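Q: How do we represent a protein-ligand complex in a form that can be generated token by token?
A: Start from the inputs.
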Amino acid sequence: MPTNRITPVSQALGDVHTVFITGGAGFIGSHTVDFFLRKGRRVVAIDDLSTGCLDNLDEAFAFPNFSFIEENVSNVDWLGLLDRHDTVVHLAASVGVKKVCESALVTAHNNHVPVEMILNAMREKGGGRFLYASSSEVYGDSPLIGSSESDFLQVHTHLGGRSAYTVSKLYGELIALAYAEAHQIPVTVMRFFNTIGTRQRSEYGMVVPIFVQQALLSEPITVYGDGTQTRSFCDVGDLAGAIFSLSASSHSAGKIYNLGNPEEISIYELAQFVKAETGSNSPIHLLQFPPERADDTDIRRRKPNIARIESEIGWRPRIHWKQSVRNIIRETAYIAPVLQAEKHAQRFHH
Ligand SMILES: NC(=O)c1ccc[n+]([C@@H]2O[C@H](COP(=O)([O-])OP(=O)(O)OC[C@H]3O[C@@H](n4cnc5c(N)ncnc54)[C@H](O)[C@@H]3O)[C@@H](O)[C@H]2O)c1
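Then emit the structure tokens for the protein with nicotinamide-adenine-dinucleotide bound:
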């Protein structure tokens, strides 16, 4: 049931277009909320705060055309909430290697059930716009470098929670596009590649906030494997802009788009940059992969081909990963004394 932290959704929504952003108190969600609000949209964020937090919405709460509903998306009365002109940006999901491995069943359920619920309500309402957050994980072990939307997908299905994440994201894509075809609902599938920026949390296994925290606390920076594996990092501000552009475009319905930054860097290079930028004396330690990231299943290279979104929507990322990392360092440095105190308290307890 809703709690007293809900800002009531206006009774007078009428035919004014509202953008519902599920997972709106999360990392990508809160930046997306801010972006749509700055563009003058009426926004309702829905989040159960399982990994997100209200602090992420500090800026949003200052806007009169913003409302927040603290609720599990599976418990929302979508039929009662939605109007036929509304847009739903569906970002809520179980995310992060550590989180998704806690329970394959919860991950699978949480990531695919709401998709069908929301689309069913849209079908009954006879309209609306649906944007679905998928993931580059669906490319799995594809040997192709520079993944394109039409690539053959080759995913692991035996990795417990990690597979549950990948397969549920893929199933979400299929079901969303099937609804689009069967019921003429404008659906857009967005395959996000690694995204970084402020408000991203370290505890669920996200590499950049982990490295930054380790460097600021003078702990060893822990690189798995030999560090030559690569990733491409897109700034969350760029990503929010892409989501906005896709939502505003009539060309994007019924299609899949890669959203990411094609510049590739190695994880070792990232660790060195974080160390240099923080002025840290942390050593960089090369460690064996933990079981949930076993070496033969960790993706060696990850790089999006963004030709489709560039040519059809005119979007391309503008923020360099080094700038994003600097922003994260600035944010984390602010709370470093608190992190340090927590670390001491933990030692004391042990
Ligand atoms: N961060 C990345 O690099 C990345 C990459 C690929 C895809 N994605 C996708 O982007 C989306 C957002 O991810 P994020 O990185 O911001 O993670 P996040 O954990 O910060 O955001 C997810 C949000 O959803 C909320 N949530 C989860 N289950 C919910 C439920 N049943 N009901 C209501 N709220 C719920 C959480 O509390 C959280 O605020 C996810 O769908 C994720 O799969 C993220």
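Residues 6-15 have pLDDT under 50 and may be disordered. The domain at 18-201+234-262+305-313 is CATH 3.40.50.720 (Rossmann fold).
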